[in-house]
């Protein structure tokens, strides 16, 4: 596979990717005794994947178009470091046929399928035509070359609403819009074209009949150059938000042996239809009646491949490398066994309570869970920055169990024990999803999140005991620092006074509310008043950010990181960030303001209003691209646009003014 002859031995691999997938590939490659080369952008200087590899090459500035999406720089790095092969991981250039061909032409081994297979399956329109010819069940749709709005409108009318608009050249939920009625089609086409062009370099679209409430079930396939094709069972990826998978599991909860055989056979036929080689995933929609329809084929390793590895006992990256060297697959279809159940949750840097806005910032602490049946794939470390330039996925928390429920409960515990303090994450949201009765019963479809979280997700608010603990830890730290800087003072005198001391006033600010706290030090115990409630906080043994405390006689185990005038606190599965402020300050009470600011760092894709225009609350004002997704910025109130401070193409920082809206004249 690639430019080298059959049977060539690979001794060194360059990983053309970053983050957790780069780290995961490096682990297997090094376990096989191979030399590894990482590439990194300026934003990833010092990132874990660059440190893990035997060598690392800087390939450009932070934006992906100047670094990870530059085939020339990646191939130059491979040649300069004398790499034999390039593994593309997933995302970036992994499904770019021109890159695969360029690797081949450079005399390097591409650890992936042939460029032609990538092209045939990478274009949804061409892939669907191929699948229909191969007899693979497909969703009714439109894959025509005529890309005019009128052609789409006529096709949608013939197919019948609702329909799904999709980017023909890509996946991952980008360039995809659900259209419920004809009046919404034009806007959906415009947004999908823009997002597709930015994500994939092509604005070609297709239409498909929207199958409501299906399961999203995908089959892992493998093929070698000797004509052997197998599948490794299925993964259920139905829990999705905006077509981005959130939780995956293997096997599918409703799978039967007959259905697995039929879907597996269809997936193998799909792979054969394009003369596939290597690892690939054929995705299907499965309806309640047990009918399934081809959705797309991902010609790469999937994010969720660990759940397949955990139930089959196979290392899919090692198999990719073996196939790329010209070896035969290590097993036949009849040798494939599925043992137990595995679940994976994707830990994202995002705020579920604010419509899942991507989050950035400094990672104050990252401490992944460990234990029986637990696997954590991550590409982050304490002290690094979460950048606005890349996908917001930080880590994958995976659990295996003898049964589905054991795996589910282990995953819940692993999420609670995996502590990330600093940027917002979806950790609490993931736990909430896994603990929903419908999910526990295995009933989740692609409509699950809309049905159970259509009104949003309410973030945890700290209770009085958690506020008291945070205040005690923050004040105790400050007292300890003062003691260390003082002259000789006996530690036994800490908290002692010959006269009564007034309570220390402390104002703690959070994203969920502000708290005025009164604190007194009574020897080894802090007496903390939060509102009308009084808490006695005794801080016990502390080591490596872990603390055991007693709050009103109840033992509490927590993890805390103090940063400047703030503190990050993890208690069980709950995560909070407290900032110290002045007493009487109001937190984030500007909800009714007409100042529209960038909610995160990002690139302005479009400005949809102009000065003097009347707007209604909720109306789209602008489109901001951040972390590979486009976000509509909506008006917070009815009014008139006083000024537009941002322009198309501007790179904004979080909090930068975009648009100012004033009240309309009466």
What features would you describe in this structure?
With 666 residues, the chain is α+β, with helices and mostly antiparallel strands. The chain has five domains: 12-111, Rossmann fold; 140-209, ATP-grasp fold, A domain (Dna Ligase, domain 1, 2-Layer Sandwich), CATH 3.30.1490; 216-453, ATP-grasp fold, B domain (D-amino Acid Aminotransferase, Chain A, domain 1, 2-Layer Sandwich); 464-581, Glycoprotein, Type 4 Pilin (2-Layer Sandwich); 595-662, Beta Barrel (OB fold (Dihydrolipoamide Acetyltransferase, E2P)). 26% of the residues lie in helices and 33% in strands. It has 16 helices and 39 strands. An eight-stranded antiparallel β-sheet has the order 14-13-10-11-12-15-22-20, sandwiched between helices. The chain has an eight-stranded antiparallel beta barrel with strand order 24-25-26-27-28-29-30-31. Strand 11 and strand 12 form a beta hairpin. Helix 4 runs antiparallel to helix 5 and helix 12 (404-417) packs antiparallel against helix 13. It starts with 11 loop residues before the first strand and ends with a strand. GO terms for molecular function: acetyl-CoA carboxylase activity. Keywords: ATP-binding, Biotin, Ligase, Nucleotide-binding. Residues 587-662 form the Lipoyl-binding domain. Pfam families: Biotin_carb_C, Biotin_carb_N, Biotin_lipoyl, CPSase_L_D2. InterPro entries: ATP-grasp (IPR011761), BC-like_N (IPR005481), Biotin_BS (IPR001882), Biotin_carboxylase_complex (IPR050856), Biotin_carboxylation_dom (IPR011764), Biotin_COase_C (IPR005482), Biotin_lipoyl (IPR000089), CPAse_ATP-bd (IPR005479).
């Amino acid at each position: 596979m690639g430019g080298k002859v059959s049977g060539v031995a690979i001794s060194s691999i360059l990983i053309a990717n970053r983050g957790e997938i780069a780290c995961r590939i490096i682990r297997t490659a090094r376990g096989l005794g191979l030399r590894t080369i990482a590439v990194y952008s300026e934003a990833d200087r010092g990132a874990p994947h660059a440190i893990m590899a035997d060598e690392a090459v800087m390939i450009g500035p932070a934006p992906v178009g100047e670094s990870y999406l530059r085939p020339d720089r990646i191939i130059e790095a491979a040649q300069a470091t004398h790499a034999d092969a390039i593994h593309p991981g997933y995302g970036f250039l992994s499904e770019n046929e021109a890159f695969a061909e360029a690797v081949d032409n450079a005399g390097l081994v591409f650890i992936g399928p042939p460029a032609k297979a990538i092209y045939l399956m990478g274009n949804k329109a061409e892939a669907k035509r191929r699948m229909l010819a191969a007899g693979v069940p497909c969703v009714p749709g439109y894959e025509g070359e005529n890309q005019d709005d009128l052609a789409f409108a006529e096709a949608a009318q013939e197919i019948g609403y609702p329909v799904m608009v999709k980017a023909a050249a890509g996946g991952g939920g980008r360039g995809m819009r659900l259209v419920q009625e004809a009046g919404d089609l034009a806007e959906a086409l415009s947004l999908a074209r823009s997002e597709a062009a930015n994500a994939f370099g092509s604005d070609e679209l297709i239409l498909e009949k929207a199958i409501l409430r299906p399961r999203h079930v995908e089959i892992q396939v493998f093929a070698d150059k000797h004509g052997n094709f197998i599948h490794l069972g299925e993964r259920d990826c139905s829990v999705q938000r905006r077509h981005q998978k959130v939780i995956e599991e293997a096997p599918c909860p409703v799978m039967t042996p007959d259905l697995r055989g039929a879907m597996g056979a269809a997936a193998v036929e799909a792979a054969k239809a394009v003369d596939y080689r290597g690892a690939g995933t054929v995705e299907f929609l499965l309806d309640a009646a047990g009918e399934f329809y081809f959705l797309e084929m991902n010609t790469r390793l999937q994010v969720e491949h660990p759940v397949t590895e955990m139930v089959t006992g196979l290392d899919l990256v090692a198999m990719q490398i073996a196939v790329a060297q010209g070896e035969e697959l290590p097993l036949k279809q009849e040798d494939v066994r599925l043992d137990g159940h595995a679940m994976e949750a994707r830990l994202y840097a995002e705020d579920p309570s604010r419509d899942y806005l991507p989050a950035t910032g400094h990672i104050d602490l990252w401490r992944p869970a460990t234990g029986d049946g637990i696997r954590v794939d991550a590409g982050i470390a304490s002290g690094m920055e979460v950048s606005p330039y890349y996908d917001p996925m930080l880590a994958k928390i995976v659990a295996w169990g003898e049964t589905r429920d054991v795996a589910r409960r282990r995953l819940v515990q692993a999420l609670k024990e995996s502590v990330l303090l600093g940027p917002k994450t979806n950790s609490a949201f993931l736990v909430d999803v896994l603990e929903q009765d419908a999910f526990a019963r295995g009933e989740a479809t692609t409509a699950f999140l809309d049905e159970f979280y259509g009104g949003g997700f309410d973030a945890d608010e700290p209770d009085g005991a958690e506020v008291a603990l945070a205040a005690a830890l923050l004040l105790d730290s400050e007292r300890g620092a003062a003691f260390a800087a003082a002259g000789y003072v006996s530690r036994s005198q800490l908290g002692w006074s010959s006269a009564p001391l007034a309570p220390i006033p402390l104002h703690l600010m959070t994203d969920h509310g502000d708290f005025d706290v009164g604190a007194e030090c009574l020897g080894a115990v802090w007496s903390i008043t939060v509102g009308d409630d009084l808490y006695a906080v005794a801080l016990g043994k502390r080591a490596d950010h872990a603390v055991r405390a007693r709050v009103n006689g109840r033992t509490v185990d927590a993890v805390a990181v103090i940063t400047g005038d703030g503190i990050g606190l993890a208690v069980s599965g709950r995560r909070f960030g407290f900032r110290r402020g002045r007493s009487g300050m109001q937190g984030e009470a500007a909800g009714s303001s007409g100042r529209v600011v960038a909610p995160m760092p990002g690139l302005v894709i479009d400005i949809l209003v102009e000065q003097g225009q009347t707007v209604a609350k909720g109306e789209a004002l602008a489109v901001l691209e951040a972390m590979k997704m486009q976000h509509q910025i909506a008006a917070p109130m009815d009014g008139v646009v006083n000024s537009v401070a941002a322009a198309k193409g501007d790179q904004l920082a979080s909090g930068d003014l975009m648009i100012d809206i004033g009240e309309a004249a009466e």
